């Protein structure tokens, strides 16, 4: 991580833990919003008007938080509006690195070797972890936002007048329901798998494991009435947040993070749901199972020899082509 703008060696995945050995995630620092007219959003400063070609996303295919921004970019037809750089999936002792792996890119925009250099370019005294996603403003050469929850919400509306997109992932009448569902999905599932994987006590691991499968059971049940998406026939933010964890589950979390009561492919409604979302236009391109496996299994603290398991055989259609 960066301390007063200087990279401290020996990257470790655990950011902080509480007195019971629970994994604690860092709060994101850059919180400006792109808006239709450049007016300030709910947090941060104004000046970030929606414009074609002005903004850029730095992402990792391994990262569920970054992937949700890619999903919304695809669903909201923003591919022509926001450019993307994908980092190398294998974490180095200087964190995320550019280039050198099939499917990853050089940093053509800023010419850096590591993501942490973006942070110090903008904030020379930055202290904290250099995370992806990073939403970058090419015009003012700064970080707009590094919190994926904000990024997916701003992308849902800010460019609609330019793109003509009518898809609303956070429709007004369902906002309360979506917020409630998102909160439990985040706590028990999205971050729950990390809490299981990075637990530093048996207690913290088991608590997280229970949460993960409790949430999966709830979602499996919710889908069992035949609905297409969690809240009905319309895809929403909650589906995006759920999908990014489900698509990584069998390939990485089941093994590496010890979330091993069962695979997602053993849960019939959830497997069909994953397949359904994967088939939505543009989504398949946001997933790389190769990056996911290589990336997670390169976390030395959990897998010192870096051996990547061959299985499990994934029963998701066409997943091998990803
Ligand atoms: N709150 C952030 C979390 C992002 C995050 O934790 N990203 C991880 C990858 S999955 C990261 O970049 N970690 C690098 C590090 O911790 O040094 C978001 O949702 O945007």
Automatic annotation (TrEMBL):
* Feature type site, description Lowers pKa of active site Cys: 253, 296
For this protein, the record's PROSITE patterns field holds:
GST_CTER (PS50405)
Q: Which UniProt keywords apply?
A: Oxidoreductase
- Where does the source fall among the domains of life? Bacteria
Give the EC number(s) listed in the UniProt record.
1.8.-.-
What does the entry list as the binding residues for glutathione? Answer: 96, 129-132, 147-148
Q: Where is the GST C-terminal domain?
A: 171-299
**Which InterPro entries does the record match to this protein?**
Glutathione-S-Trfase_C-like (IPR010987), Glutathione-S-Trfase_C_sf (IPR036282), Glutathione_S-Trfase (IPR040079), Glutathione_S-Trfase_N (IPR004045), GST_Omega-like_C (IPR047047), GST_Omega/GSH (IPR016639), Thioredoxin-like_sf (IPR036249)
State any single GO MF term: oxidoreductase activity
> What are the record's GO terms for cellular component?
cytoplasm
Q: What class of enzyme is it?
A: oxidoreductase
One matching Pfam family is GST_C_2
Is Metal-binding found in the keyword set?
Answer: no
Q: Does the keyword Cell membrane apply?
A: no
Q: Which residues form the active site?
A: 63, 194
The molecule here is called Glutathionyl-hydroquinone reductase YqjG
- This protein's species is Vibrio quintilis
């Amino acid at each position: 991580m960066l301390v007063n703008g200087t990279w401290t060696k020996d990257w470790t995945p655990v950011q902080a833990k509480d007195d019971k050995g629970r994994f604690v995630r860092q709060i994101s620092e850059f919180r400006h919003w792109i808006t239709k007219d450049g007016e300030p959003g709910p947090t941060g400063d104004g000046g970030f008007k929606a414009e074609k070609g002005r903004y850029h996303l730095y992402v990792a295919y391994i990262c569920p938080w970054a992937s949700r921004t890619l999903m919304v970019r695809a669903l909201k037809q923003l591919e022509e509006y926001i450019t993307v750089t994908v980092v190398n999936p294998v974490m180095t002792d200087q964190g995320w690195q550019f280039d050198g792996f099939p499917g990853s890119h050089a940093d053509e925009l800023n010419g850096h070797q590591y993501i942490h250099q973006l942070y110090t370019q903008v904030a020379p005294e930055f202290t904290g972890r250099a995370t992806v996603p990073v939403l970058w403003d090419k015009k003012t050469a700064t970080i707009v936002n590094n919190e994926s929850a904000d990024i997916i919400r701003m992308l849902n509306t800010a460019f609609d007048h330019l793109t003509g997109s009518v898809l609303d992932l956070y429709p007004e009448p369902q906002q309360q329901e979506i917020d409630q569902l998102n909160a439990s999905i985040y706590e028990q599932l999205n971050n729950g798998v990390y809490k299981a994987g990075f637990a530093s006590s048996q207690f913290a691991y088991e608590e997280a494991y229970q949460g993960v499968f409790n949430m999966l059971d709830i979602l499996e049940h919710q889908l069992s009435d035949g609905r297409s998406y969690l809240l009905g026939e319309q895809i929403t933010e909650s589906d995006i947040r759920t999908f990014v964890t489900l698509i990584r589950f069998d390939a990485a979390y089941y093994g590496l993070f010890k979330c091993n009561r069962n695979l997602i492919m053993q849960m019939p409604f959830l497997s069909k749901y994953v397949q359904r979302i994967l088939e939505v236009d543009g989504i398949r391109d946001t997933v790389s199972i190769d990056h996911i496996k290589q990336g997670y299994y390169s976390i030395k603290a959990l897998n010192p020899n870096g051996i990547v398991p061959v299985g499990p055989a994934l029963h998701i259609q066409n997943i091998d082509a990803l």
